[in-house]
Specification:
Layout lengths: L2 E6 L11 E5 L6 E5 L3 H9 L10 E3 L5 E3 L2 H14 L3 E5 L5 H14 L2 E4 L6 H10 L6 H7 L2 E5 L3 H4 L3 H6 L15 E5 L5 H4 L3 E3 L6 H12 L9 E2 L2 E2 H13 L3 E5 L1 H4 L5 H14 L5 E5 L7 H11 L5 E2 L7 E2 L6 H6 L5 E5 L3 H4 L2 H8 L2 E5 L5 H4 L3 E3 L10 E4 L5 E4 L12 H23 L9 H4 L3
Parallel strand pairs: 6-7, 6-17, 8-9, 8-13, 9-10, 13-14, 17-18, 18-19
Antiparallel strand pairs: 1-2, 2-3, 4-5, 4-19, 7-15, 11-12, 15-16, 20-21
Protein name: Formylmethanofuran dehydrogenase subunit B
Keywords: Oxidoreductase
GO cellular component, one term: membrane
Length: 461
């Protein structure tokens, strides 16, 4: 008899929908149906039982082909690569659990490397603005139950977060919004006529790269300087700015969701900074929150885990041994790769090869490249070693953080293929093997020492 699992978490985008219903075969080995998930999330679930899936580590051979090896051999290879590297870097983590992110931090502490995550190329500017200005925020549950004005700025959830509008922001029937979308006003600021703009009440087709100008104009209206605004700001007529400003001020509970269209245009973190300031100004006359549209289902996870551990959400440099530091531009992956400072790159839970600038990929590929990922991606295909692992959220349970930083416990749906390991198990195995190698090396270097050698005394020496 088939098993029906309810309340399952979706391993796709930052919405981290936890209402998925999965039908599993009676032997618990095959996923038969997936309900409530978007098309992309459904495909991730179904991929787990794809008969063409790679289930064993693959090591690049001198002729360029891959050869299958055991997990023990793969762990030994990775540990020796970290031991011999001067500056290893581990990057990704958007599709891993918080447990694996904790294990990665432990590994890079022992290996004296750098930890970075996908925020480095997406919402890093948002995190920097949060440092500078704080930010008024809320949960997605509050959005569903209370929000009457939704502002999407530089985001296109129809494609990037397929259930964001239907589950949280526009269409659901909330506790205080029982008539759903008929009680909500939707405003989209985007230079393109996106599908999200197509369902909006107001689409401000802003001139690309002029977000700061328009945000500043809204603030001028709030402060009573509308007479000083020119007839056209950032490609938007003054009359439209005044009309939308009236809606923003009149909101009972408004929420601004912003995407990479705001964080990666001219101004970057300063755009987010002034958007936060606009929310603060609006809160003098209304009630507003602001939230980043995070991409992967647990990309908020490493930000939280590493902040608890080191005080920094990304670009964490552990090469000094005694202390961690963060300085985007200096310790961020793209910048380190562009300066050719990295001599070992470990890609985990993302596809750096598909998203990095080609020059950065070429410089990283000059050295050893290891990919830990269940998927056959570009990062896996160019790697010297590809270690496939269980799919987080499908075969591997764990904690994930939704885009509103609410932690959710994801449950396992089916078992991993026999003999496979999770990313947490692989990372812990590499850390244990690296400890052994470091102590063996220390004993060889100090053969006459009568005192026992501790790991702490030889790390990063």
């Amino acid at each position: 008899m088939v098993k029906i699992l309810e309340g399952i978490g979706c391993p796709y985008c930052g919405c981290s929908c936890d209402d998925v219903r999965v039908v599993v075969s009676d032997d618990g080995k095959k996923i038969l149906e997936v309900e409530n998930a978007c098309a992309i999330g459904t495909e991730i679930f179904l991929q787990a039982t794809n008969h063409e899936r790679i289930t064993r580590p693959r090591l690049r051979q001198p002729d360029g082909s891959f050869s299958e090896i055991s997990y023990e051999e793969a762990i030994d290879f990775a540990a020796k690569a970290i031991l011999n590297a001067k500056k290893p870097l581990m990057y990704g983590f958007g599709s891993t659990t918080c447990e694996a992110q904790r294990a990665a931090a432990q590994l890079m502490e022992i290996g004296c490397g750098i930890l970075d995550n996908c925020a480095s190329i997406c919402h890093g500017p948002s995190l920097m603005a949060f440092f500078d200005n704080g930010h008024p925020t809320c949960t997605l549950g509050e959005v569903k139950n209370r929000a009457d004005v939704i502002l999407y700025w530089g985001a296109n959830p129809v494609h990037a977060h397929p259930r964001h509008m239907s589950r949280y922001a526009i269409y659901p029937l909330g506790f205080f919004k029982g008539n759903g979308f008929t009680e909500r006003t939707v405003i989209v600021v985007d230079p393109r006529k996106t599908d999200t703009a197509g369902v909006a009440d107001y689409h401000l087709q802003i001139k690309q790269g002029h977000d700061y100008d328009l945000l500043n104009a809204f603030r001028m209206v709030l402060y009573g300087y509308e007479s000083d605004i020119p007839e056209m700001v950032a490609g938007i007529p003054k009359q439209s700015i005044l009309e939308v400003s009236k809606i923003l001020k009149g909101a009972k509970f408004g929420v601004c969701f912003f995407g990479m269209g705001l964080t990666h245009t001219d101004g970057r973190n300063h755009n987010v900074d002034i958007a936060i300031s606009l929310m603060r100004d609006l809160n003098a006359v209304s009630k507003w929150s602001i939230m980043a549209m995070r991409g992967h289902f647990n990309i908020a996870g490493p930000n939280r885990v590493w902040c608890w551990t080191y005080g920094f959400p990304y670009c964490v440099d552990l090469t000094k041994g005694d202390y961690a530091h963060m300085n985007p531009g200096e310790t961020s992956t793209i910048d380190l790769a562009s300066r050719d400072e990295i001599d070992l790159f470990i890609n985990i839970g993302t596809d750096a090869a598909a998203h990095f600038p080609i020059d950065a990929v070429k410089k990283l590929k000059k050295h050893t490249w290891i990919t830990i990922d269940p998927n056959v991606s570009m990062a896996a295909e160019i790697a010297d070693l590809h270690i496939p692992v269980g799919i987080s959220g499908v075969e591997v349970p764990g904690i994930v953080y939704r885009m509103d930083n609410v932690p959710i416990q994801y449950r396992k749906v089916i078992d991993m293929p026999e003999g496979m390991l999770s990313d947490e198990e692989v990372l812990t195995g590499i850390a244990n093997r690296l400890e052994e190698l470091i102590l063996e090396k220390a004993k060889i270097c100090s053969p006459d020492s009568s005192e026992p050698i501790s790991l702490e005394s030889v790390i990063c020496t």
